[in-house]
Protein backbone atom coordinates (compact mmCIF):
# COMPACT_ATOMS: atom_id res chain seq x y z
CA UNK A 1 0.00 0.00 0.00
CA UNK A 2 1.56 3.25 -1.15
CA UNK A 3 0.20 6.18 0.84
CA UNK A 4 1.77 8.59 -1.67
CA UNK A 5 -0.03 7.09 -4.69
CA UNK A 6 -2.65 9.67 -5.77
CA UNK A 7 -4.80 6.91 -7.27
CA UNK A 8 -5.75 5.77 -3.78
CA UNK A 9 -7.59 8.96 -2.86
CA UNK A 10 -9.54 8.88 -6.14
CA UNK A 11 -10.45 5.19 -5.85
CA UNK A 12 -11.60 5.53 -2.23
CA UNK A 13 -13.69 8.57 -3.18
CA UNK A 14 -15.35 6.59 -5.99
CA UNK A 15 -16.04 3.69 -3.58
CA UNK A 16 -17.58 6.06 -1.03
CA UNK A 17 -19.78 7.58 -3.76
CA UNK A 18 -21.00 4.09 -4.62
CA UNK A 19 -21.83 3.37 -0.99
CA UNK A 20 -23.60 6.72 -0.55
CA UNK A 21 -25.60 6.18 -3.72
CA UNK A 22 -27.84 3.54 -2.17
CA UNK A 23 -30.52 3.70 -4.85
CA UNK A 24 -28.47 4.71 -7.87
CA UNK A 25 -29.69 8.30 -8.08
CA UNK A 26 -27.00 10.42 -6.41
CA UNK A 27 -24.83 12.47 -8.75
CA UNK A 28 -21.34 11.12 -9.37
CA UNK A 29 -18.27 13.30 -9.40
CA UNK A 30 -17.07 13.64 -13.00
CA UNK A 31 -13.59 12.13 -13.38
CA UNK A 32 -11.16 12.86 -16.19
CA UNK A 33 -8.20 10.66 -15.24
CA UNK A 34 -7.54 8.42 -18.27
CA UNK A 35 -6.40 5.48 -16.12
CA UNK A 36 -9.93 5.24 -14.67
CA UNK A 37 -11.24 4.29 -18.13
CA UNK A 38 -8.94 1.26 -18.41
CA UNK A 39 -10.55 -2.12 -17.74
CA UNK A 40 -9.60 -3.47 -14.33
CA UNK A 41 -10.63 -6.05 -11.73
CA UNK A 42 -11.11 -4.84 -8.17
CA UNK A 43 -12.45 -5.85 -4.79
CA UNK A 44 -13.90 -3.45 -2.27
CA UNK A 45 -13.65 -4.48 1.38
CA UNK A 46 -15.62 -2.70 4.08
CA UNK A 47 -14.85 -2.84 7.80
CA UNK A 48 -16.78 -1.36 10.69
CA UNK A 49 -14.95 -1.02 13.99
CA UNK A 50 -12.29 -3.42 12.67
CA UNK A 51 -14.78 -6.16 11.73
CA UNK A 52 -15.53 -7.24 8.16
CA UNK A 53 -18.77 -5.61 7.00
CA UNK A 54 -18.77 -6.55 3.31
CA UNK A 55 -16.49 -7.60 0.47
CA UNK A 56 -17.41 -7.89 -3.20
CA UNK A 57 -15.28 -7.84 -6.30
CA UNK A 58 -14.46 -9.05 -9.75
CA UNK A 59 -11.67 -11.34 -10.86
CA UNK A 60 -11.54 -10.35 -14.51
CA UNK A 61 -11.22 -6.83 -15.94
CA UNK A 62 -14.61 -6.54 -17.67
CA UNK A 63 -15.39 -2.83 -17.20
CA UNK A 64 -13.54 0.45 -16.66
CA UNK A 65 -11.77 0.79 -13.32
CA UNK A 66 -14.02 3.60 -12.06
CA UNK A 67 -17.17 1.61 -12.86
CA UNK A 68 -15.76 -1.55 -11.28
CA UNK A 69 -14.89 0.19 -8.01
CA UNK A 70 -18.24 1.99 -7.87
CA UNK A 71 -20.25 -1.19 -8.53
CA UNK A 72 -18.19 -3.33 -6.16
CA UNK A 73 -18.51 -0.77 -3.37
CA UNK A 74 -22.29 -0.81 -3.79
CA UNK A 75 -22.21 -4.60 -3.83
CA UNK A 76 -20.08 -4.82 -0.70
CA UNK A 77 -22.38 -2.41 1.14
CA UNK A 78 -25.74 -3.75 0.02
CA UNK A 79 -25.45 -7.18 -1.62
CA UNK A 80 -22.91 -9.22 0.35
CA UNK A 81 -25.15 -12.11 1.42
CA UNK A 82 -23.17 -12.61 4.64
CA UNK A 83 -24.34 -9.26 6.03
CA UNK A 84 -27.40 -7.06 6.31
CA UNK A 85 -27.21 -4.02 4.03
CA UNK A 86 -25.16 -1.15 5.43
CA UNK A 87 -27.40 1.24 7.32
CA UNK A 88 -27.28 5.00 6.72
CA UNK A 89 -25.80 5.64 10.18
CA UNK A 90 -22.91 3.22 9.44
CA UNK A 91 -21.74 4.74 6.14
CA UNK A 92 -19.43 7.46 7.48
CA UNK A 93 -17.79 5.06 9.97
CA UNK A 94 -16.85 2.46 7.35
CA UNK A 95 -13.20 1.76 6.66
CA UNK A 96 -13.02 1.33 2.88
CA UNK A 97 -10.28 -0.64 1.14
CA UNK A 98 -9.94 -0.98 -2.64
CA UNK A 99 -7.81 -3.81 -3.99
CA UNK A 100 -6.67 -3.53 -7.60
CA UNK A 101 -5.96 -7.04 -8.88
CA UNK A 102 -3.21 -8.15 -11.23
CA UNK A 103 -4.06 -10.65 -13.96
CA UNK A 104 -4.43 -14.11 -12.38
CA UNK A 105 -1.74 -16.61 -13.29
CA UNK A 106 -2.63 -20.31 -13.41
CA UNK A 107 -0.33 -22.53 -11.38
CA UNK A 108 1.15 -25.55 -13.19
CA UNK A 109 0.41 -28.17 -10.55
CA UNK A 110 -0.48 -31.83 -10.34
CA UNK A 111 -0.91 -32.20 -6.60
CA UNK A 112 -1.88 -30.34 -3.47
CA UNK A 113 1.77 -30.44 -2.35
CA UNK A 114 2.85 -28.68 -5.54
CA UNK A 115 0.15 -26.06 -5.05
CA UNK A 116 1.21 -25.42 -1.46
CA UNK A 117 4.86 -25.09 -2.51
CA UNK A 118 3.98 -22.37 -5.04
CA UNK A 119 1.77 -20.23 -2.82
CA UNK A 120 3.35 -17.10 -1.35
CA UNK A 121 1.76 -16.34 2.04
CA UNK A 122 0.97 -12.67 2.47
CA UNK A 123 1.57 -11.98 -1.22
CA UNK A 124 -0.83 -14.05 -3.29
CA UNK A 125 -4.53 -13.80 -3.73
CA UNK A 126 -5.69 -17.29 -4.69
CA UNK A 127 -8.52 -18.61 -6.85
CA UNK A 128 -9.70 -22.22 -6.79
CA UNK A 129 -11.93 -23.45 -9.59
CA UNK A 130 -13.47 -26.87 -10.15
CA UNK A 131 -16.46 -27.31 -12.45
CA UNK A 132 -19.18 -24.95 -11.12
CA UNK A 133 -17.32 -24.20 -7.89
CA UNK A 134 -15.07 -21.15 -7.67
CA UNK A 135 -13.83 -18.95 -4.84
CA UNK A 136 -11.07 -16.52 -4.05
CA UNK A 137 -9.26 -15.13 -1.06
CA UNK A 138 -7.48 -11.80 -1.31
CA UNK A 139 -3.88 -11.68 -0.06
CA UNK A 140 -5.18 -9.92 3.07
CA UNK A 141 -6.77 -13.23 4.19
CA UNK A 142 -3.30 -14.60 4.92
CA UNK A 143 -3.31 -12.39 8.04
CA UNK A 144 -5.92 -14.67 9.59
CA UNK A 145 -4.82 -17.91 7.87
CA UNK A 146 -1.01 -17.78 7.67
CA UNK A 147 -0.52 -21.54 7.11
CA UNK A 148 -0.75 -22.42 3.37
CA UNK A 149 -2.62 -25.68 4.00
CA UNK A 150 -5.18 -23.99 6.27
CA UNK A 151 -5.55 -21.19 3.71
CA UNK A 152 -6.16 -23.63 0.87
CA UNK A 153 -8.55 -25.78 2.94
CA UNK A 154 -10.67 -22.77 3.90
CA UNK A 155 -10.67 -21.54 0.31
CA UNK A 156 -11.93 -24.91 -0.94
CA UNK A 157 -14.67 -24.80 1.69
CA UNK A 158 -15.63 -21.32 0.49
CA UNK A 159 -15.89 -22.80 -3.03
CA UNK A 160 -18.31 -25.42 -1.64
CA UNK A 161 -15.75 -28.21 -1.95
CA UNK A 162 -14.45 -30.51 0.80
CA UNK A 163 -11.51 -28.96 2.66
CA UNK A 164 -9.00 -31.56 1.41
CA UNK A 165 -10.56 -31.97 -2.05
CA UNK A 166 -8.16 -32.72 -4.89
CA UNK A 167 -8.88 -33.62 -8.49
CA UNK A 168 -6.68 -33.41 -11.60
CA UNK A 169 -9.09 -30.81 -13.06
CA UNK A 170 -8.95 -28.55 -9.98
CA UNK A 171 -7.39 -25.27 -11.10
CA UNK A 172 -5.56 -22.86 -8.86
CA UNK A 173 -4.50 -19.37 -9.90
CA UNK A 174 -2.80 -16.60 -8.01
CA UNK A 175 -2.70 -12.83 -8.31
CA UNK A 176 -1.37 -9.86 -6.41
CA UNK A 177 -3.12 -6.65 -5.40
CA UNK A 178 -2.39 -3.00 -4.91
CA UNK A 179 -4.31 -1.93 -1.80
CA UNK A 180 -5.70 1.53 -1.14
CA UNK A 181 -7.36 2.56 2.17
A few lines on this structure:
The chain has 181 residues and is an alpha+beta fold. Helices cover 26% and strands 26% of the residues.
Helix percentage range = 25-40%
Number of strand elements = 10
Structural class: alpha+beta
Q: What does the radius of gyration come to?
A: 17 Å
Mind telling me the CATH class of the largest domain? Alpha Beta
Order of helices and strands: HEEEEHEEHEEHEE
Please indicate the percent range of residues in DSSP E strands (runs of 2 or more).
25-35%
Largest sheet geometry: 4 strands, antiparallel
Write out the CATH superfamily name of the largest domain.
Hypothetical protein ph0010, domain 1
CATH architecture assignment name of the largest domain: 2-Layer Sandwich
Number of helices: 4
Q: Could you give the order of strands across the largest sheet?
A: 3-2-5-10
The outline comes out as globular
Outline the low-pLDDT stretches: none
Report the end-to-end length measured between terminal Cα atoms. Answer: 8 Å
What is the residue-averaged pLDDT? 94
Q: What this model shows, in words?
A:
With 181 residues, this protein is of the alpha+beta class. It folds into two domains: 6-101, Hypothetical protein ph0010, domain 1 (Glycoprotein, Type 4 Pilin); 105-176, Dna Ligase, domain 1 (2-Layer Sandwich). It has four helices and ten strands, in the order αββββαββαββαββ. The strands form three sheets. A four-stranded antiparallel sheet has the order 3-2-5-10, covered by helices on one side. A four-stranded antiparallel sheet has the order 6-9-7-8, covered by helices on one side. Strands 1-4 form a two-stranded antiparallel ribbon. A hairpin with a 2-residue loop joins β7 (125-130) and β8. α1 packs across α2. The radius of gyration is 17 Å and the shape is globular. The relative contact order is 0.18.
Amino acid sequence: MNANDPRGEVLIAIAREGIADEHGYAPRTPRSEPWLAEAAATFVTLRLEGELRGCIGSLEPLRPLAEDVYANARGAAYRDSRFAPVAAHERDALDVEVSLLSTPQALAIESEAEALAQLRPGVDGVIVHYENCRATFLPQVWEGLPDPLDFLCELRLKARLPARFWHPRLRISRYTVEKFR
